[in-house]
Amino acid sequence: MTRATREAIAQLSERFGDKLSTVASVRRHHASGVTSHMTIAPDAVLFAASTQDVVDAVTICHHYRCPVVPFGTGTSTEGQISAEQGGLTIDLSGMDRILRVSPSDLDCTVEAGVTRKALNAALRDTGLFFPIDPGADASIGGMASTRASGTNAVRYGTMREFVTSLRVVLADGQLIDTGTRARKSSAGYDLTRLFVGAEGTLGVVTEVTLRLAPIPERIGAAVCTFPTVEAAVSAVVTAIQSAIPLARAELLDALQVEACNHYSKLDLAVQPTLFLEFHGTHQAVDEQVSLMSAITAEFGGSAFRWATAPEDRTKLWQARHDVWWAALALRPGSQGIPTDVCVPISELPGVIAQTRQDVVELNLIAPLCGHVGDGNFHLCVLVDPEDEGEKRRIAELNARMIARAHAVGGTCTGEHGIGTGKMDYLVAERGAGMMTLAALKRALDPRNVMNPGKILRVDDYQPYA
Amino acid sequence: MTRATREAIAQLSERFGDKLSTVASVRRHHASGVTSHMTIAPDAVLFAASTQDVVDAVTICHHYRCPVVPFGTGTSTEGQISAEQGGLTIDLSGMDRILRVSPSDLDCTVEAGVTRKALNAALRDTGLFFPIDPGADASIGGMASTRASGTNAVRYGTMREFVTSLRVVLADGQLIDTGTRARKSSAGYDLTRLFVGAEGTLGVVTEVTLRLAPIPERIGAAVCTFPTVEAAVSAVVTAIQSAIPLARAELLDALQVEACNHYSKLDLAVQPTLFLEFHGTHQAVDEQVSLMSAITAEFGGSAFRWATAPEDRTKLWQARHDVWWAALALRPGSQGIPTDVCVPISELPGVIAQTRQDVVELNLIAPLCGHVGDGNFHLCVLVDPEDEGEKRRIAELNARMIARAHAVGGTCTGEHGIGTGKMDYLVAERGAGMMTLAALKRALDPRNVMNPGKILRVDDYQPYA
Questions:
Q1: What is the second-level CATH architecture of the domain B331-434?
Q2: Which residues between 36 and 55 in chain A have a beta carbon less than 8 angstroms from any beta carbon of chain B?
């Protein structure tokens, strides 16, 4: 611990008393989570109860140049919660109040620690829901900070589209609102979109104003199997090109289906499979289904197997959300390393085919799932933590996938973010734009106290002159 | 002209020859347009033919600290094209090539000077269209720079949602791409959204990658009249809350309808009127119309009068696009001053009612039209250019509208931008956030050469420390 950090913690302790913890297990817990990256524990953890707590803590940390790491639920996958330079982790999970719901405006304001499931539970009687669904029950603040998306993004969009304003504590402790409640605005630089996806490196999000969507009159969920992964992907790409407003179009390869059958007690045919969902009026859903089944049949898809009862639908999507745990159970004792490229949809069948060849060639176990309507897919690559050779082969696989994504105009991460894990890939993706990213970081956080060592190494770049 | 600007122009002249003009009429033309604000002509105009031209010009201007003002079609309304500190205007209208259309990915890349009508003409055989429609045939680069939207935004979104990447010449002449062609990405700060809406103050946009939408199988356009403006607005708000995917929902008050009848040779009933459009399959449009007509009837709306033939539809929307000219024709010799607030939709009926009272009280002529599904509406306030008292009353009207919008969580501009005209209102809207805006401006344009004197007065703010 640096002397400055020690002084900061002393002052934080005086201000916050029991809300501040330096207990080793608490510190360690806040550097853990689903990430497979090496993480470093912070020197102290603050359990913040209000925006004012965050303002006070950040002001103290700024004064002493003590690093600040925001923490929601620990479900980020690229090392975003690691305290790379020690310092203070601010745990926002206690800031879990829903501050306002306006059914007539289809929007709400929540504290950053509210989770998406808690929000949807609270919305139950309003006829509205919050559609962004990354699988994990992440916090809304964390989802904003990683620009999360997930299964519904093909129809509804991502956090980029759903956040209308953020309350943010800046690096020096100043508090700003990034936008208004208007559905659109041309009033100056888009600060909301700048902080969405900034992974806590520009400030700490404490409140989020979100758009909401009306719960559709009817939801139809179905499973459809295909002879090949490529056929399943091509069916979805064709549907998108035909303007069928799919609400969800999730691909699982045969290995992932097998894993889900075991883990989630399903009895699906062990073949490449799409989990589909249709939202709309009764009539609109009927029409979407009829158009979609014509397309899937064209690509050799099976008849739709319907999950009609709400409990069957819940079971199906719970299984989809549990793909990660199902995959890990394929090889007990293994860890999982997720990949996350996103490419123009016409490139998706080719990119997936080449990736599957790589998996075979590199002798890896890597079930595949994907938000194929967005051009985004994941492998859950299983790794024996003791096997350095396997780790190297996995790194090679990831590097090939990302290089291939970049070659066809895609991105190294569709929804997981950069964290510590993808900083070099970001450099490859952004090129000369890295200097712009560094200029923004330096302008808003000149002391480099906000989640330092994530997204970019700011000292590698000169300011513009 | 400053000495530095004179030196810059000498060097630009050497580099560009005939592409550079210092002719008074050319300079004056590039500070004109539809804006009613006082504007200042640049010292020279460059007709850029390529991104390289822009790189070279900006590099020279940066060296000499000569201001640079980007120019598309001159249709911005808040003085964005005024050369406040003289310098060089870069006219991008010659950069009008469509570089790539990928029907299978529903996207394209165009040079900044391509206009939206030219783009849609070029897309005609692809089954796709570019739905953002601000009325004027603006350039795509200009639309990106003002975060434009318009009649289709209620269904399709704004430039914020449709731009996936920009090629931008930064203040020092460096060239960057702000994103990739992926439909979503979590790879670092969202530079695309930072430059969308920056009004040329952070760099010059030279190429734009855009999403496109499939042309719907059926388009239904109808007109519906109401007893009051408030009834018409409430019908649209109810439709939005009921998740009816209206493609367009444009309100005209009785005075505006009268103006359009004269100007566009229509024979509409002189009453508050909605121009509605429905997009979808045949079946989906039928269902939307049936749901919507039940709602409009509830609010006293008339039977729908259909514009079935494509030429009738074109005539209807041409009339909508000509509301500005129609309004001006109400009082020959007058100029028009557009207002542009946007509020949460539940607040819209109240805000419009109070605004209409203000118009009466202040003794002004101000037909109203609005993208009411977004909470966005405009007055076209007619002004006698010689009448200083009227000008003061119009300023008072605008100030009241914006204060009212701010009081209910809205914004001072839904789609026109800040330019020179709304800088003080932006300060009122952003509060402490202005310092963040200034920090971004200073970081990316430390010499303040990019469209200086627009959006914000950067010298009013200290950098973060």
A1: 2-Layer Sandwich (3.30)
A2: none
